[in-house]
Amino acid sequence: MRVLGLDPGLRHTGWGVIDAEGNHLRHVANGVVKSDGKADLAQRLLQLHHGIAEVVAAYRPEAAAVEVTLANKNPSSTLKLGMARGIALLTPALSGIEVAEYLPMIVKKAVVGTGHADKDQVGMMVARLLPGCNPAAADAADALAVAICHAHNLATGRHWSAGGEDPLAAQVQAQAKRARA
Asked: What is the pTM of this model?
């Protein structure tokens, strides 16, 4: 299954595409969609939409996942980041792709083993889990981590669906719901 991971940001939205076959992961591509900081907000959001749409068209993912952004100290920045996140959720959905959401803590735990890992640890583990991968930037490494997290969750979900409900998926959904509230 081809999975697109997105790490939303108004200036830089990281993206990463992987192929997942059972427990085997393979790096396909990664990069960053940038918006023009001098343009007005609507144009910047449109730039992000077009950039993500190009990635979706080029790599044809079957699933997508977006990292949930948490509030920061500046309400204006939080609002703008939320808008960029909306574009990251909307763009794959417009192509008929189901989009999942993961808290940063869940992504880090899935990739590094601890929910409090720093960016360097995430980047190092992404490189180990995807041999030959050289992420274009920290945002791209984070997006690949989101894709890896989703691939693991999909594989776990398939495993549990054969014998019952997936407790991890229920936990992730509950945490994402609390984060949105």
From this structure: 0.85
Residue ranges and CATH numbers for the domains of the chain are 2-180 (3.30.420.10)
In tens digits, the chain (181 residues) has pLDDT values of 999 999 999 999 999 999 999 889 999 999 999 999 999 999 999 999 999 999 999 999 999 999 998 777 888 888 999 999 999 999 999 999 999 999 999 999 999 998 889 989 999 999 999 998 988 799 999 999 999 999 999 987 554 444 455 455 555 556 556 656 5
Give yes or no for a contact between 8 and 81, defined as CB atoms under 8 angstroms apart. Answer: yes
Distance between CA atoms of 71 and 82, rounded to whole angstroms?
9
Residues marked as catalytic? 7, 67, 139
Classify residue 139 by burial, with Cβ atoms within 10 Å: 0-12, 13-18, 19+.
buried
Other beta carbons within 10 angstroms of residue 95's beta carbon come to: 15
Q: How far is CA 30 from the centre of its chain?
A: 11
